[in-house]
UniProtKB/TrEMBL annotation:
The gene is OR51I1. SMART domains: 7TM_GPCR_Srsx. It is found in: Cell membrane; Membrane. Keywords: Cell membrane, G-protein coupled receptor, Membrane, Olfaction, Receptor, Sensory transduction, Transducer, Transmembrane, Transmembrane helix. The keyword Ligase does not apply. The chain crosses the membrane at residues 28-51, 63-84, 104-122, 143-165, 199-223, 244-267, 273-293. Residues 43-294 form the G-protein coupled receptors family 1 profile domain. It comes from Monodelphis domestica (Gray short-tailed opossum). This is Olfactory receptor.
Length: 312
């Protein structure tokens, strides 16, 4: 149903879409997404609880891991209402303003994840390149300031998005291509001049993903240089092993983003199901994988969980 006010042509509600071509198997799709949510939310809550409970984990590395888990919870909970509504209850409508709110939070948490991964790379850089000053450089106060700076940067850069969308008329229908609201998807059904939205969107992507990924690569170049200067091969492997979890988390986050960008740019005639599935991978894989990666690859996290299970 459409509602037109005096100055804008905007739908009262937007229609969400499931996965094209899988309409007959949406029961199985709903089951898969519910399992993904359980793994993601349960795993990140477990990491947070463990870091809070175990005093041995009250260190900068695990404080940053807690930020990552808290952010991943935000990503999952941002998509949860409309995903469950679409696949579990076949309710595909979302209010226009509610859609803008969801869009803001999904993008904000996604951009925050990039900033947190950069902060974690700085943590690994200090730990390996300047271990004697590790505790004095990464004090609790500085960690809090870094966390607030990441939050503020993401909030400020994404804050204009809902207002940039709100000013546009919508005359190309009200059916979105996903079961949640994203800025590029809303631009496909908007009409009028969307150059400002596209230019500002590109600026935010470069300012966030571009800058963060560049500094992550730079930090690992310096880490590799410091590790190669270590005489003992055993010490080299030990130093690099402390970075494996973070490298896996970086790859889990940036590889889907690069894949989505490549498909949009070079495979524009790809079937709709490909675009939808890649967007789902981009939003669902990092929150689900990060707790698993750190539980498997980080000895202190494994010990903490084993300790809890043994007490139980």
């Amino acid at each position: 149903m459409w509602h037109f006010n005096d100055s804008h042509f905007q739908p009262d509600k937007l229609q969400l879409t499931g996965i094209p071509g899988l309409e007959t198997g949406e029961g199985w799709v709903a089951l898969i997404f519910c399992l993904l949510y359980l793994i993601s939310i349960g795993g990140n809550l477990a990491i947070l609880g463990l870091v809070v409970r175990e005093t041995a984990l009250h260190q900068p590395m695990y404080y940053f891991l807690s930020m990552l888990s808290l952010n991943d919870l935000g990503v999952s909970l941002s998509t949860l209402p409309t995903m469950l509504g679409t696949f579990c209850f076949n309710y595909r409508e979302v209010g226009f303003d509610a859609c803008l709110v969801q869009m803001f939070f999904i993008h904000t948490f996604s951009f925050m994840e990039s900033g947190i991964l950069l902060a974690m790379s700085f943590d690994r850089f200090v730990a390996i390149c300047n271990p004697l000053r590790y505790a004095t450089i990464l004090t609790n106060t500085r960690i809090v300031v870094m966390g607030l700076a990441i939050l503020l940067k993401s909030f400020v850069t994404l804050f204009p998005f809902p207002f940039l969308v709100k000013r546009l008329p919508f005359c190309k229908g009200n059916v979105l291509h996903h079961s949640y609201c994203l800025h590029p998807d809303l631009m496909k059904v908007a009409c009028g001049d969307i150059h400002v939205n596209n230019i500002y969107g590109l600026f935010v992507v470069i300012f966030t993903y571009g800058v963060d990924s560049t500094f992550i690569l730079l930090s690992y170049a310096l880490i590799l240089k410091a590790v190669l200067a270590i005489a003992s091969q055993e010490q080299r492997l030990k130093a690099l092993n402390t970075c494996i979890s973070h490298i896996c988390a970086v790859l889990a986050f940036y590889v889907p983003i690069i894949a989505v960008s490549m498909i949009h740019r070079f495979w524009k005639k790809a079937p709709p199901v490909v675009h939808v599935m890649m967007s789902n991978v981009y939003l669902f894989v990092p929150p689900m994988l990060n707790p698993i990666i750190y539980s498997v690859k980080t000895k202190e996290i494994r010990r903490g969980f084993l300790k809890i299970f043994q007490k139980s």
